[in-house]
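SEVERITY: medium
COMPONENT: batch folding queue
REPORTER: lab tech (J.R.)

DESCRIPTION
The queue accepted two submissions in a row. Attaching both inputs and their returned structure tokens so the on-call engineer can compare them side by side.

ATTACHMENT 1
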Amino acid sequence: MNTGEAGSTLGEAEARELASRAGAVFQPRAPIITAESFAGRWEQLATVSDSVAQRGLHVVVFGERGVGKTSLANVIGQLLRAMEEGVVGNNGGPHLFVKVHTHIGDSFANIWRRAFDEVYWHRDKPTTRFSYEIVRELMTMREALNISETPSIDEVRRTLAILKRSVFVFDEFDRGSLAVKKAFTDLIKALSDYAVDATVVLVGVSHSIDDLVRDHTLIARSIVQVHLPRMAECELRNILDKSSAALDVEFSAEAASLIVNLSQGQPHQV
């Protein structure tokens, strides 16, 4: 189907079918969850992946609401797996990727308990991906390693030392309390001091790192700041190009420019 020709029109059935497919391609109310659907932000993704490769570095992703922070967080794990598959002689093993949300009222221990409960233990190895056939053989990592219900900073550090090449992403971190933010600062300092091969990624709404990380000067050498501004025009057009290919339609130059201008740099408005 190509609706880019001058004067072309769609019949009622074609219009309904196109509207149905468009609803699957354009999902402004939900974050992107697959790398195939992701567009733009490659500079920021490269910064995150480079940071993960450096032991002792951790990442803080921040920006205003609606600029795609959660979508970026969702595809980090897929990007890391794709990069690992393309590296010849990768002896480090795959990254263990875990993503959880921060809730109002959470304590440091609650957050990490939820994070550890996302990890299962199978044949003496941690995993977050498994088939139906091995479900009965699984136990949670907390059970396998006898992690307490209220893990302390030191217990989290010791656990992450076991989970080599792990990446833990905490989305909506702006919802965390002052006490939680201070505890994460202390944790990141401990992880860096002990050179633990694990990466903590904090993601949240903020105009600066100060609102997400308390006393961040204590860990200035251990964190990489990734600011997500509103999208540039070329990134917004990249979203349209992907959508155009998925729908097999062409946007006129006028329509594309109008969509880009009205979106005001926010990807969910495209």
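ATTACHMENT 2
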Amino acid sequence: MQITIQELQNQWGIARSTVYKHIKAGRLTRLANGKIDVSEIVRVYGEPSKNTGRDKKTSAVESHDNT
């Protein structure tokens, strides 16, 4: 499975600039179609956390509302 850098950013919570820096350094491989294979992302960053990207903001608001 391949995903875009935007999808990587949303699911893993990694800044786009960091992703491009890792691609330029050779740490992460970008395919000719501009996407990145998920196995490559997991190799570099590990599995996505449940509280990353957009979910992190939602969780913080929910936690704040409960106090």
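NOTES FROM REPORTER
The CA atoms of residues 6 and 25 lie 19 Å apart.
No errors were logged for either attachment.
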